[in-house]
Amino acid sequence: MEYKESVRKGKSVVQSVSSRESVDAITIARSFSRGLVGGLIATLVMTAYRIPIARSLPPTAAFWAQFVGEKEASEYPVHGLVLHLVYGMVGGGIFALLFERRVVESGQTDEKSGTMWGAVYGFLLSVFGIHVVLKRVLRMNPQSDERFIFHVSHLIYGVTLGAWLGSRAE
After folding, report:
1. What is the DSSP string of 21-60?
2. Alpha-carbon distance 27 to 29, whole Å?
3. CA-to-CA distance for 62 and 65, rounded, in angstroms?
4. Nearest 5°: phi and psi at 108?
5. What is the pLDDT of residues 59-68, one digit of tens each?
6. What was the pLDDT predicted at 7?
């Protein structure tokens, strides 16, 4: 085990590198946890926007139907919504890890910065969702209006997530 000596209040303190690594692991876990909560909130906001406009379930119901279930997507409304929430939470956790590292490096912890980076993140998720998940994985070809609402809803997700995390980043 490697040791590092430091001086605190005139006393020599020996700290193991592994304890420093465990502090980093705790910091990462806390950041990811904040992201999970932010992702849940952002997904609820995005879904509240999307469902009344699109008048359909999120594409996660189609994903469930294709890869897990044996029926049509319309038969899996709860499964689709739960999967949608889980994806949104994990996406929030990943964003928190990326965003909070940038915040620590730049020293900026505010809603403005979070909102900006969240918008970028939401846009990237949306592009990935359309071109990879919908078109390639699910073999769906959404119409222009559907793609537009998909992009706007992911932008809302990113903005909400970024603003929320920006107000809580450590």
Report:
1. HHHHHHHHHHHHHHHHHHHHHHHHHHHHHHHHHH-S--TH
2. 5
3. 5
4. -100, 115
5. 898 999 989 9
6. 46
Output 98 or 156, whichever has higher pLDDT. Answer: 156
User: What single-letter amino acid sits at 94?
Assistant: I
By mean pLDDT, which of 41-50, 54-63, 116-125 is the weakest?
54-63
Distance, CA of 140 to CA of 82 (rounded, Å): 21
Both tokens assigned to 162: 């970024």
- 139 DSSP assignment: -
Give yes or no for a contact between 59 and 138, defined as CB atoms under 8 angstroms apart.
yes
Q: Are 63 and 138 in contact (CB under 8 A)?
A: yes
Q: Count other Cβ atoms within 10 Å, centred on residue 150.
A: 19
> What is the C-alpha separation between 134 and 81, in angstroms, rounded?
16
Cα(100)–Cα(114) distance, rounded to whole angstroms?
9
| pLDDT tens digits, 96-111 | 999 877 665 566 667 8
